[in-house]
Specification:
Elements: H1 2-21, H2 29-48, H3 53-80, H4 85-116, H5 120-137
């Protein structure tokens, strides 16, 4: 159980870190933040649907598709550049509650999915790698 919690904690930190950093010339930082949060909510819903080995395979396919979308957000974020400190703080404050809710949901869903199917841990590790790569782009 401790191993599961450590794995999901790592994933949550990566997701939260990329969320806080996420944010193109037509894009706005706010639009990118909204898109990132929406993807995290989709990921949580996919994880919440895991019941057994069969549903793990389906979830893996869906999470792989989301990984590509997370990578695209990273590219959009890189293209738009960073906000100044005050604007970044204001954006984080605006989305703080939603960020916390999504992060908590992801942690719970990840932990439950791993408990139901040990194979889910590998899938989540792969997603965490994509998120870590996205963070490097930001």
């Amino acid at each position: 159980m401790t191993r599961v919690l450590k794995g999901t904690g790592f994933l949550a930190l990566l997701l939260l870190g990329s969320l806080l950093s996420s944010c193109s010339s037509e894009d706005t930082h706010e639009a990118i933040m909204k898109d990132h949060l929406a993807l995290m909510e989709k990921a949580a819903a996919i994880l919440e649907a895991v019941e057994n080995k069969d549903s793990t395979a389906e979830a893996g396919k869906k999470l792989e598709q989301l990984s590509a979308q997370f990578e695209e957000i990273g590219k959009r974020s890189e293209a738009i550049g960073t906000l100044d400190k005050d604007s970044g703080t204001a954006l984080q404050d605006k989305f703080k509650t939603r960020q916390e809710e999504v992060s908590t949901r992801m942690i719970k869903a990840s932990s439950a999915a791993i408990t139901k199917s040990g194979e889910m841990q590998k899938i989540l590790q792969d997603l965490a790698k994509v998120m870590a790569h996205q963070r490097k782009q930001l």
